Amino acid sequence: MNSKTLLNIFLALALAGLLALAIYEPEKTESPNAKKLTTLDPDTVEKISIDVAGHPPLLLIKQSGQWQMQEPLAMPANAGRIQQLLKITQAKSIAAYIMNRVDTHQLQLDTPGLSLTLDDLLLHFGTTDALGGSRYVQAGNTVHLITDRYSHLMKGAATGFVSPTLLPQDSVIEQLILPDLRVTQQEGRWSVDGHDSDADTIQALLDEWRYARALRVSLIDKNGAVVGENITVTINKNNHQQVLQFTLLRNETDVILQRTELGIQYHLPLEANQRLLALPVITAEPDQ
So where are the chain's domains? Predict the structure, then answer.
């Protein structure tokens, strides 16, 4: 069989495939509004529910303009990750199909392994298309095909939606007890280990804690019995005092701060060992 014959066979098969696609492709909706997956404004969404097969449900609530995780953990939420996810409300619909004209079993929409609820709007996620770059998503009586930029955000561990900041937003530190340092405040005056210290130096350390962000948040390995050092941070937010307990673990790759009662741990870069656990050295500027 020569190359010309092989080429003709290939072209015939390709043409047959295109004809089959044209014949069996589900009927698309003709609605001129089917340009986006939803009509929601991402800024108005106040409740997010994520259901992934084999994982506990995840519930996020917007309270006083700030996102909080309520299930499976009660923690401040990762606002940046939520903003990424809410972009799905404006996702462009590559194609839209009437629900009763598609094979829901073939598209894996009869028993979806991933569902997302934005306020009262329920979205079911099915399989990807043949090329794998787009995913079928059911919204009401319509199945949309959208670029698959969102499913990976929801399929990871719930800790991916936990805020990477060590302390709650807008909280004020009232006391900081570190393994080798005790920073306390009495009658508006700060002291280190019971002695007066430079106010700018102390404020610099407090700011390190206030703005510290973990590289990632993970669940504590309950099977690993690890003994660490204790850290206590007393904060005040909205006239409500709270004592946060951390367990400090150090290794050759990162610094880990565990919240044992919550079952989570924050992974920070090695330089956090100096920035968070010791007073900074502030060099005075030379006289001009």
Answer: 28-160, 165-275
